[in-house]
UniProtKB/TrEMBL annotation:
Transmembrane segments: none annotated. Gene3D superfamilies: 1.20.1280.50, Ribonuclease Inhibitor. Residues 13-49 form the F-box domain. This is F-box domain-containing protein.
Length: 480
């Protein structure tokens, strides 16, 4: 490298180092914690910056061997936890001034051996010294739900409870908590989450419950909880009596034969996402009854995961709950199903601005032996619709993901165009999450024999068929 080149490098480095701290912190915040630590060797200007970051992320899986082992053995977890503990100690053990507090600490870990004790002590120190403002804690367990026994879930609960008992300051600082494979059967989860965790705003459970067919009642008038996420949590019923700050609820997969959820006082609830594949035991329920108690939902997602509908036919009964709905997503509709029944939602929700429909077509799973054991035969939805002549004046965009040039889909789009005179865009997409086991784009592998039109000639032909005879200014957009 000649002298001019060296001068250019030094000049560029000097310009970078002259940036204000908040910009440099923003740069460091975009890389993992190990990379951030290495930047301390760049220059004297950078030497202390990583240890003054206002937001820190320690993710145990970032310390696993590369490529990541599959499955992850206990020895791998211990090695990763040893490295995580060392990194955490390096960042948290250094004293900070009052002006360099940690605004958010995200730590993702396994409760294994003495390492979790070391991390618990470090957390208590920074919390008790007033250095940490908010803690985002993820306690992992890598067993998949089918392979996780009830005794193992109880044991995981004992480990989690033991950790919180040993380090009570952690509960007081928690703003977000995520737990995996925990059975709360033997401890008072309500007291821990809503009496001890006074700062808790976000709660996520992955395959957690309080025992087979258990009920969970939440009555927490003083709670700050604004987001609740449940994944494969097999409560028979979740009854939310009072959660005044709850803004978002996401529940993916339940086992209740009827409605899995009921609301009491949830004045802040704006977003609700319900996703489940109805098994042979699902009897279904009235969505209007589940939504009773809500009054201000603006985003609703219903995902049927390619199986039969788990809601009963309704229309007028939904008007109250849909009064302020702005975005409606109906996902996981089996590709051979009619779509006309979804017009019931449009009539019940005249304020909807975005309608998002996602069609499910997976030839790899359509009639597999494993599926047939758990799920019933798919039956096309039949709703007796009594539609009036009112228009959806606010509807601006229709998205249809998994589009195929099938008669039922084209008929549905035409019906929406006729009902929504102010519609601006009709976006037709192939699929957002293509399946590795499905030969996408191959008609012989399609359940219907139809595939997404990819060349302009075919797209123009479809667009003409959709708009033929209809006066509409909506733009038909094809996207992958």
């Amino acid at each position: 490298m000649d002298s001019n080149s060296r001068g250019t490098v030094i000049s560029e480095e000097d310009r970078l180092s002259m940036l204000p701290d908040d910009i440099l912190f923003s740069i460091l915040g975009r890389v993992d914690i190990r990379t951030a630590a290495r930047t301390s060797a760049l220059s004297t200007r950078w030497r202390s910056l990583p240890w003054l970051l206002p937001e820190l992320d320690f993710v145990v899986k970032n310390f696993l061997p590369v490529p990541k082992p599959n499955p992850i053995e206990v020895s791998h977890m211990d090695e990763a936890m040893a490295s995580l503990t060392k990194a955490t100690s390096s960042f948290l053990a250094k004293p900070r001034s009052e002006s360099s507090t940690i605004t958010r600490l995200h730590i993702n870990l396994y409760l294994s051996n003495h390492f979790s004790c070391d991390i618990g002590s470090l957390l208590c120190d920074v919390i008790d010294n007033g250095v940490l403002n908010g803690l985002d804690l993820v306690i992992l367990d890598d067993k998949e739900p089918p392979d996780c026994l009830d005794e193992e879930m109880v044991q995981q609960a004992d480990s989690v409870n033991g950790f919180f008992t040993a380090y009570p300051s952690v509960l007081a600082c928690l703003t977000k908590l995520s737990l995996y494979n925990v059975c709360f059967r033997d401890w008072d989860i309500h007291h821990i989450l809503f009496d001890c965790c006074k700062q808790l705003q976000h709660l996520a459970f992955f395959h957690c419950d309080a025992g087979l067919r258990s009920y969970w009642k939440i009555d927490a008038a003083n709670s700050k909880l604004c987001a609740l996420e449940l994944y494969s949590c097999f409560f028979e019923k979740l009854e939310i009596v009072c959660l005044p700050k709850l803004d978002k609820l996401y529940w993916d997969t339940w086992t209740s034969h009827y409605s899995p959820l009921s609301f009491g006082f949830v004045p802040s609830l704006r977003e609700l996402h319900l996703s489940c594949g109805a098994t042979r035991n699902h009897k279904g329920f009235n969505l209007s009854e589940l939504l009773c108690g809500t009054s201000d939902i603006h985003t609703l997602t219903l995902d049927f995961q390619g199986e039969k509908l788990w809601i009963h036919p309704e229309m007028k009964q939904l008007c109250t709950a849909f009064n302020k709905l702005r975005k409606l997503s109906v996902h996981g509709i089996f590709v051979e199903f009619d779509l006309v029944w979804t017009k019931a939602f449009l009539q019940a929700a005249p304020s909807v601005e975005i309608l998002h429909i996602q069609v499910w077509e997976h030839a790899c799973e359509a009639d597999s032996e494993a599926r047939n054991i758990t799920f019933p035969d798919r039956t096309n939805p039949f709703w007796e619709l009594q539609l009036d002549g009112s228009k959806n004046l606010l509807l601006k965009e229709l998205q249809l993901v998994g589009f195929r040039p099938l008669e039922q889909q084209i008929t549905f789009i035409r019906a929406v165009l006729e009902r929504a005179p102010n519609l601006k865009r009709v976006v037709l997409k192939e699929d957002t999450e293509p399946c590795e086991d499905c030969d996408i784009g191959n008609p012989s592998y399609s359940l219907t024999g139809h595939v997404f039109p990819k060349n302009k000639r075919d797209q123009d032909a479809v667009a003409k068929k959709i708009t033929d005879g209809i006066v509409s200014s909506a733009q038909i957009i094809f996207g992958c």
